[in-house]
Amino acid sequence: MSSDYRSFDDLPLTLRVEDLMPILGIGRNTAYELVRSGKIRSIRIGRQLRIPKDALVAYLSGRNR
Asked: Contact, 17 vs 31, CB < 8 A?
């Protein structure tokens, strides 16, 4: 999965936590902390955490929680 997204439409329906890092310009620890704290909603699929695209939009627009 590429992290070279040019627009919102290029984003997949779910993102890995590692995909948040270049999108938000943050480090790995900060990305995981946003998910662990619930500031960005995530779902667990097996052992992986995935962030729905709409959860990222909600976080960026301030509509989370």
From this structure: yes
Helix (H) or strand (E) holding 14: strand 14-16
Tokens of 27: 């480090």
Angle between helices 17-24 and 28-36 (to 10 degrees): 120
Question: Is the CB of residue 51 less than 8 Å from the CB of residue 41?
Answer: yes
**pTM score, two decimals?**
0.80
| Helix residue spans in the chain (DSSP H) | 17-24, 28-36, 53-61
Q: Encode the chain (65 residues) as per-residue pLDDT tens digits.
A: 446 777 778 889 999 999 999 999 999 999 999 999 999 999 999 999 999 999 999 999 987 65
